[in-house]
Amino acid sequence: MQLKNKGTVATALAGAACALLGTPAVQAEEEMLKDWKFDTAILYYGETDRVSLAEGVISATKTNDDDSLFNVKLVIDTLTGASANGAVAQPYAQTFSRPSGKDGYVVKPGETPLDDTFRDTRVQLSGSWMQPFADTWRGTGAVNFSREYDYMSLGVSGLLEKDLFMRNTTLSAGLSFQFDSIDPVGGKPMTMTSMLTPTYNEADDLFDWDDDYEEGENKDGSDSKTTTDLILGVTQVINRRMLMQFNYGLSVVDGYMTDPYKLVSVVDSSGITQDVIYEGRPDSRTKHSFFWQTKYALDNGVVDVSYRYATDDWEIDSHTIDSRFRFNLGDNNYIQPHLRYYQQSAADFYRPFLNQSDATPMYASADYRVGEMTAYTVGLKYGHKMENGHEWAVRAEYYQQDPKNAGFDEPGALADLDLYPSVKAVILQFNYHF
Amino acid sequence: MKRKLVGILVLMGVTQLSGCASLGVQPWERDLLAKDEMALGAEGVDLGLDDHIYFSKEATSGGRSFAGGGCGCN
Fold first, then answer.
1. Which of A6, A76, A164, A304 is 20–30 Å from B45 (CA)?
2. Taking CA atoms, what residue in B is nearest to A42?
3. Pairwise CB contact (< 8 Å): B26 & A166
4. What is the mean pLDDT of residues A43-63?
């Protein structure tokens, strides 16, 4: 205690002396920032012939004298490119209208229909405060806000943690509430109704609409959804080298979960499209997740393996195995291979297309992201610590999604077309920590 | 299904908690566990970026932390 007091007095004296001598501004700034740590990253994500994304992150964390932590994080990303609109490929060229309802686009015979006008910028700002109290407790409160052209999200969350058994066991409980609103380009389409399409006039390279067409006639306004999440967790130190965590998560979503830009083809018995309708998804979803993670310290590295099982009332079950293996190369360098495998079953309303002869269901989506699929990621990260203590790292990864046929017969022309094309993406990232 | 979920939960909970007495380390044995790279949330920025990618491209999210919402994600 005495030593601490001496330190405080010494610091105060040093501070006073500096003030008298007129400390340069730079030094004062360094003094102010010494409790702050900054994590920054830029990421590029690019799919072959589809979406590409550039994302930047700045995260700043301040450790206070009482070990409380304040974090503020800014994420900005910009997305461009093409996204599958959900309609099936056809042996002839297909015309679709743009979401705005003002223009159209033509998809070549045999090709998966992609709408190539996606362009969006998202800004996300979040802040959190972690406060230790009563020796073995920690409480964290967080807020986040994100905004993009057609979407706004606002969330608050709280987490309570309690250490037990000489801090070898930590119990945690968290609650989060999120409000999202979506204002689709051109208005929210009425689900399961026909998309109105123009006729492509090749000679003039123009799209002609019927005389009685009114822009946005089957589209109407905006919508919203709320997400309530509960997480219960146990973290346990197993031995000097091993740490384990188990989380149970419950997520209840209410509101608009339809993707307003996705379509479903209605085909006849020979597989030829007769109509294209806007998709529709249920407006409630309850998800359960079980997450287990183990970290093991090697003499020169760390093994990090996690497994997640998730199930929900849309009948989507998924298994995810994620693993990172860090190998230290001396004191200041490391390499870290990353392997991830993901598998999901299809939602009960997933239909790659609808048959004209069947009654129109209440809900249907042809979005491959709610269909049966497997995906894997392989990557490598290299990190380096510089003499001044700053660290940088680069990461390169390959991600591939392989959608599967969840048991749907493919009538006529559809049998010869690729209805489940793979999506291949490259991820490149640069991190800087100081 | 619900019964199965509860069963898994209870089993995991019991196996985690019942072992606590014999598991764990003394405070002076935390040299390896105290390393930055052994923190569960180490590389938080990477995990956040990955969550955003997989949230946008797959039907499941969360587990490690809140499943959340937060983007339109095409």
1. A164
2. B49
3. yes
4. 95
